[in-house]
Amino acid sequence: MSSANTPYVVSLAGSLTTPRAQATHATLVAALSDHDCVAIDCAGASEMDVSFVQLLVAAHRYALRRGKTVALASPPSGLVAETLLRCGFAPPKRPSAALDEVLSLPSM
């Protein structure tokens, strides 16, 4: 298990779209199963769609139920910010990588 202060970084690259959603889901579940704090680095993504945003929401909820944390490795910009906007999420009012702020989600 990783320390709550040292996130385990999951690097996701290439296409983060519906055809790869099952593999991306498995990667995120494995990381959250093995680590208390996970950071998702998707800077190497070449394309994204709503399925990736849905996976972020699911990862956030999965982590909360288990007392873990998950965040983006860096505040949303470029492709990530564009995809979030296309999916109806406004950028946070302050720079943040926490998924509850990025996705405007309640902490349940």
Structure, explained:
- The chain is of the alpha/beta class and 108 residues long.
- It has a single domain (8-102), classed as STAS domain (Transcription Regulator spoIIAA).
- The protein is 40% helix and 23% strand.
- Helix 1 (21-34) runs parallel beside helix 2 (50-65).
- The radius of gyration is 13 Å and the shape is globular.
Give a brief description.
The protein is α/β, with parallel strands linked by helices and 108 residues long. 40% of the residues lie in helices and 23% in strands.
Rg over CA atoms, rounded to whole Å, is: 13 Å
Order of helices and strands: EHEHEHH
State the fourth-level CATH superfamily.
Answer: STAS domain
Structural class: alpha/beta
CATH architecture annotation name: 2-Layer Sandwich
Please count the beta strands (DSSP E, at least 2 residues each): 3
Residue runs with pLDDT of under 50 for 5 or more positions = none
Shape: globular
Q: Give me the number of helical elements.
A: 4
Topology record:
Elements: E1 8-16, H1 21-34, E2 37-48, H2 50-65, E3 69-72, H3 78-86, H4 99-102
Parallel strand pairs: 1-2, 2-3
Helix pairs in contact: 1-2
Characteristics of this structure?
alpha/beta, 3-stranded parallel sheet, about 110 residues, globular, Transcription Regulator spoIIAA
